[in-house]
UniProtKB/TrEMBL annotation:
This is Nitroreductase domain-containing protein. Gene3D superfamilies: NADH Oxidase. It holds the Pfam family Nitroreductase. The keyword Repeat does not apply. GO terms for molecular function: oxidoreductase activity. It comes from Acinetobacter haemolyticus CIP 64.3 = MTCC 9819. Residues 8-193 form the Nitroreductase domain. SUPFAM superfamilies: FMN-dependent nitroreductase-like.
């Protein structure tokens, strides 16, 4: 699909057809697109919990009660749902894991290049941790880059998607033991195919005019 057509036609799906499932090969393609999402200094501060079964989706729906009950059906009727998690800190061990992967991927011509990458990443982490004092926000910003990548890729593939911030974070974090893993839930995304009952599919898109959002120099 054309990129501009995708941008103009994809939307946050409000109701899913529970009988329609994303073909396995196509879904695995989406996960690979997600894995290759960009992040500042390739920090990749994320982890993705993928719910494919009804039982797994029920576990996520446990965090969609009370004020968030309106989102439960989106998860339960979706083909797949993904919890986007963000690291709660960046440890020295994790930085070395990234560096080792860079080396395995053939990114360093010599030890000087490797040390340069080590120093750059460490410098960014320390800058956000100690000077700006917003390391968690910086990490979560990277997770949202991955969210945008997935939403657009799904649109290109003709797959509907719904990003959701309306959920009980404490319940989700506890249900999946995220704190013990150094993670927290940031956003949930359901994927699948829209139901005929989805009112949002019939509404026109609404965006601010060019002159409001662009300053051309």
């Amino acid at each position: 699909m054309d990129t501009l057509v995708t941008a103009k036609t994809r939307y946050a799906t409000k109701a899913y057809d529970a009988e329609k499932k994303i073909p396995k090969q196509q879904f695995e393609k989406l996960l690979e697109v997600l894995r290759f999402s960009p992040s500042s200094v390739n920090i990749q501060p994320w982890h993705f919990i993928v719910a494919e079964t009804d039982a797994a989706k029920q576990r996520i729906a446990a965090g969609l009660t009370g004020n968030y009950i309106y989102n439960a059906a989106k998860v339960l009727n979706s083909s797949h749902t993904i919890i986007f998690c963000t690291r709660t800190d960046i440890s020295t061990e994790y930085l070395e894991q990234l560096l080792q992967q860079d080396e395995l991927s053939g990114r360093f011509k010599d030890e000087t290049a490797k040390q340069g990458q080590r120093d750059t990443r460490q410098g960014y982490v320390e800058f956000y941790r100690n000077e700006l004092k917003n390391l968690p926000a910086w990490m979560e910003n990277q997770t949202y880059l991955a969210l945008g990548q997935l939403l657009f890729a799904a649109g290109l593939e003709g797959i509907d998607a719904t990003p959701m911030e309306g959920f009980d974070r404490n319940t989700i974090n506890q249900e999946f033991g995220l704190a013990e893993k150094g993670l927290k839930a940031s956003v949930i995304v359901s994927l699948g195919y829209r139901s005929e009952a989805d009112f949002n599919a019939k509404l026109p898109k609404s965006r601010l005019a060019d002159e409001v959002i662009f300053t051309r120099l």
